[in-house]
Amino acid sequence: MRALKSILFGVAVLVASSAWAQSPPPPGAKVFFSNIQDGAVVKSPFLVQFGAEGVKITRAGLNIPGTGHHHLLINAVLTSEDKGYAIPEDSHHRHFGGGQTEVELNLDPGTYSLMLVLGDGDHVPFEPMVTSDKITIIVE
Ligand SMILES: [Cu+2]
To answer: With CB atoms 3.0 to 4.6 Å apart as the test, which of 38, 42, 54, 102 could cross-link to 135 if both were Cys?
Structure first.
């Protein structure tokens, strides 16, 4: 089932990559970490909560104006080359296509960067991108 899901996701990414343009973000949309700050020292497992303003967080696939869903980048960035494409899905790019607004992370000890990126119903970042600040955390 997991394999089928990732194949289906891959197909969706291919379709999204070729067929959909980027949409402008909802006016004034912001995303941010609401319970963790830059420089935080934590122990796994720990909860990361995603805040949003000016956008309604929904599940993926709806494509209703004014909505989007969260993506969490862990030790990753999106560059200008990623613009216009669906955000990849892997351990560094986590999708919350169910409309989730938090996640419990279980990371090995180390230093990590975390950043939120708001995506549209097709998992494509808005243009201009709506992201949180990129924060650095230390997992003990
Ligand atoms: Cu997504």
So the answer is: 38
CATH architecture of 2-139: Sandwich (2.60)
The Cα–Cα gap between 129 and 73 comes to 14
Positive or negative torsion for Cα 8, 13, 15, 16 = positive
How far apart are the CA of 124 and the centre of ligand 1, in A? 7
**Residue 68 alpha carbon to ligand 1 centre in Å:** 9
Residue 114 has pLDDT above 70, yes or no: yes
Q: Could you read off the pLDDT of 11-44 as tens digits, one per residue?
A: 454 444 444 567 899 999 999 999 999 999 999 9
For the chain, give every domain's residue range: 2-139
Q: From ligand 1's centre to the CA of 96, what distance in Å?
A: 6
pLDDT tens-digit readout, 63-106: 899 999 999 999 999 988 888 899 999 999 999 999 999 999 99
Task: Determine the distance separating the centroid of ligand 1 and the alpha carbon of 37, expressed in angstroms.
Answer: 23
